[in-house]
Amino acid sequence: MLLKKYKEFTTSLPKSLFVPSAADKFIESREAYQFYWLLKFAKRYFVYWVIGRVFGLVSEREEIASEKNILWINFSAPSLGDSLMDLSARVLLADRKLDLFTSKKNSKLYRRDQWFTGVFDSARKITKKYDLVICDSFAPRVLVKKLRVAPLTPMVSMYGFLNGFDLNRTYFAFARMLDLLSKNPVDFRVKPYLTVCSDLQTNADLCIAVGGEWSFRTYRYWDLVVERLVQQNVRVHLIGGPNGRSDHERLVRLFPNITSSVGNRLDEVSSEIANTPFFMGADGGLWHMACALDRPTVALFADCEIFDADGSRVMRDTRDMVCEILYDDNEVSNIRPEDVVEAFFRLRRRKDLVC
After folding, report:
1. pTM value?
2. Measuring CA to CA, which residue among 308, 340, 311 is closest to residue 325?
3. Structure confidence by residue, pLDDT tens digits, 179-191
4. What value does the mean pLDDT take over residues 218-222?
5. Domain locations in the chain?
6. Which among 265, 248, 100 is positioned nearest to 198, based on CA atoms?
């Protein structure tokens, strides 16, 4: 029984709702049965069992039916990119009154959201009664928050006990929501969504996201890319978080005509991306933000273990995004600067053809 549960790393989906992932590879490998994953599963299953079986406070359902007032708890994967992907399918709940309970950092991005009626970053602020709670996983921190705000309210989950493998979280979010709603695939754009919260302009042609949280996703040759772009009269604007500060200082010193807002708040960055024609950057939160804002992008990927039904490698984009994808098996810095520049001009030609 436990072994069967352990293999159900994510919520099972009908075969008609295939999601690109590394699930088969992960389950068949020894990694799936390493002590780390076994312990993580055991902890989550124990908390779920105690709360549900002993105290009777987990009333799990397999579908979303006629419930109108719904709370979505999004704490399992707190990174910006994961939040945007995991919450993308909220557009399928446009006929419901939907509230969000998430981290303080991410909550600011959804304050003016057209699908969330209310956005909360603290359990103390939630006083409403709900018909249903969507928990993004069975992680203890998610279940504990559910107990604090709606202990007796029925729940559904997006993910199951574990998802230790890589997968296209946007496709998964839509597939899982369609499954919960008992709907067939709909004619809807499968992509993240975000509403701009401010109105900052850049007067640039291209936003480049510098810095990065992970070394293999941090590009080291932006100076060579910017040099080639500036030579061809492309107006460049730099964006990024605190980890992009060193790139900012080096690039503005080398190229005085470029602009930069590295270190700005996320709501300000979202406005800058939305008001700039193109985006370029490595796989990360700001790239996901650009996709959510419908910006055409050049995206640099590395070590992405997601596979389609035929076994071919895919990335984290979807068919409804306008992206030029560059990939290296090990790290994004192995991608040649000239290839990055060529990808930008291919992207610009694609945009011109559409226009």
Report:
1. 0.92
2. 340
3. 999 987 777 899 9
4. 98
5. 11-180, 206-354
6. 265
Q: For 139-152, what is the mean pLDDT?
A: 90
Q: How far apart are CA 44 and CA 267, in angstroms?
A: 34
Q: Collect all residues with Cβ–Cβ distance below 8 Å to 180 and sequence separation of at least 6.
A: 62, 63, 64, 156
CATH class of 206-354: alpha beta
Residues 6+ apart with CB under 8 A from 301: 282, 283, 315, 316, 325, 326, 327, 328, 332
- What one-character DSSP code corresponds to residue 60? B
| Amino acid 242: pLDDT | 92
Would the CATH topology of 11-180 be identical to that of 206-354? yes
| Mean pLDDT of the region 289-300 | 97
What architecture is domain 11-180? Answer: 3-Layer(aba) Sandwich (3.40)
To which residue do tokens 């993308």 refer? 88
Q: Is 62 exposed, middle or buried (0-12, 13-18, 19+ CB in 10 A)?
A: exposed
pLDDT at residue 225 in the model: 98
Predicted confidence (pLDDT) at residue 156 exceeds the cutoff of 80:
yes
CA separation (Å) from 4 to 1, 27, 41? 5, 12, 12
Angle (CA) 251 256 257, round 5°: 110
